[in-house]
Amino acid sequence: MARAATTADAFNAVAEPRRRQILDVLAGGERAVNDLVALLGLAQPQVSKHLRVLREVGVVDVREDGRQRLYRVNGPALRPIHDWVQGYERLWSERFERLDDVLADLKKEEDDGSE
Amino acid sequence: MARAATTADAFNAVAEPRRRQILDVLAGGERAVNDLVALLGLAQPQVSKHLRVLREVGVVDVREDGRQRLYRVNGPALRPIHDWVQGYERLWSERFERLDDVLADLKKEEDDGSE
DNA sequence: TTGACATATTCCTATATCGGTATATGATCG
DNA sequence: CGATCATATACCGATATAGGAATATGTCAA
Asked: Per the CB < 8 Å rule, is A73 touching B92?
């Protein structure tokens, strides 16, 4: 078996740095393909291919406008990533340090009581 | 050129679902390899290989304890993912809807004034 | 030391990628 | 209609995977 398809889910689609760059540009608003080509300095076919992957996992949406296709971010598709990684924030954020102290104390009391 | 190595960064390492499962278990505290094997129902070599990838990107740390090796999550290594995806939260979170309204109003006024 | 246990590494195969180049599709303009 | 612009797709080659099976490494116990 090979690695999971990049179109398997948002995690895989977003693992590619160029695709994150594309999203970062689109975060500023709708863009045509050639705008992305110019802004990122990538070849046009590469951009189209990356956009296809992003489209297939639902991270971007397209809209036709004459000859152009305007791409935009579809935020909610990124939510699974956000939610998953959010669960680990307490492992580095000061916000949770006090809470961790409290929980540690509670656990200690509990252990002392039952042992 | 092929796809970026899974050990290239945390984004790639975490794109694999099994590796996220491993992290989710380790989020509950230090675990030996065989614990993970039992808990996840994976083959031992596969688990070791996934742990290697996670180790190489710094997402987990190891500690030797007799015959066992105890793995634990190294949270801060996940922070780049958190920070990146955080920038998109406003695209779905109600928390930011009011703010977006305000910004839209401001932009509208600005445009009306300069045109 | 020998053996059992815990974990890591190696070898294998199938597959899906990525970039590059060429080309196809589709829309607009004259 | 023919030419041009905008984008998508097809084909190529190199590479890095993921799982499976076998095996190597390392540690403890008797």
From this structure: no
Q: Is residue B115 pLDDT above 60, yes or no? A: no
Question: Could you tell me the two tokens for B59?
Answer: 């997402």
Copy the structure tokens of residue B54.
């996670």
**DSSP code, position A29:** S
Which residue's structure tokens are 């030797």? B64
* Model confidence pLDDT, tens digit, residues A60-82: 999 999 999 999 999 999 999 99
Any B CB within 8 A of A67 CB: no
| Region for residue A66 given its phi and psi (left: phi exceeds 0; alpha: psi -120 to 50; beta: otherwise) | left
Rounded Cα distance, B65 and B71, in Å: 10
Judged by CB atoms closer than 8 Å, whether chains meet at B14 and A11 is answered as yes
Q: How far apart are CA B3 and CA A107, in angstroms?
A: 45
Give me B5's structure tokens: 């190595």
Angle CA B96–B84–A4, to nearest 5: 120
